[in-house]
Amino acid sequence: MNGHSLKLLLQTTCMILCSWVAAASAQDISGIWRGELLQGPNGCYPKYFIELQLQLHDKEIQGITYDYYDTTKFVKLNFKGRLNTVSKRMVLIENKVIEFKIPGNCVPCIKTYDLTWKKQDNQEELTGTWKGSKMGSNESCPPGTLFLKRVSASAFKNEELLQDKQLAEIQKNLPPIFRKTELIQTIIVDAPSLKVQLYDNGQIDGDTISVFLNQQLIVYKKALTEKAITLEIPVHESKDYEMVMFAESLGTIPPNTALMVVSSGTKKYEIYLSSSEQKSAAVRFRYEK
Q1: CB 67 within 8 A of CB 110
Q2: What is the pTM of this model?
Q3: Are strands 240-250 and 279-287 parallel, antiparallel or unpaired?
Q4: In 77, 126, 194, 241, which residue has its Cα 20 to 30 A from 231's Cα atom?
């Protein structure tokens, strides 16, 4: 091998290894991050805490944010985003308020974060800026900065968690598949628990589904048959629970159709769901006394 060929080989090898290292390092951001969020004048609090629960799939990011003064005063939101594996910069966009418990003179702020990930001497941090608008309006929130470090556990006790360790590991490794979610119905229940049963709607033709509850995988690739897939779900007052039926296979007679039977207290509901490779069907639950 001459010197020119050796040089080309070394350059190619370096490019492959550098790309592999960048991709491998990028996977490390999945987990729980906590820190301080600073806000400009006229904000509800000039400084408060923030927790990001991040899941990275390839370059796509999704997860949950807690903005909080303490664990009794908080706003919980969903977010999505994207990571640049070269610059290690990520933009996260909150898209929905799940739950909030804050003073009456405060309004939840739906934010966009511009963050950079840094790792040095086994210390990891996320730093950057944020801006946003007040829930239900286009009025801007006073923008600010934030600083987070990786932590081992959430500050919040997730009482409604239905996802076991095996499902959590499966979800962590799922590739990102983006489909439109169609909200079929919102159900107001008056009891603190509900039972959901899912059946094949019509001829048994090999339909298989996965089910997500507030973005947590709780059923994975199960067949719809005449025997119900049954879920027992505790619910908390004034909190939204969104259940999404994701079609894994459409069977021999597309689309993927299911009958959902919901029982809560003395009430029973029947909802017909249809999912395909383009859209998923969702039902929202809310408990009000």
Answers
A1: no
A2: 0.52
A3: antiparallel
A4: 77
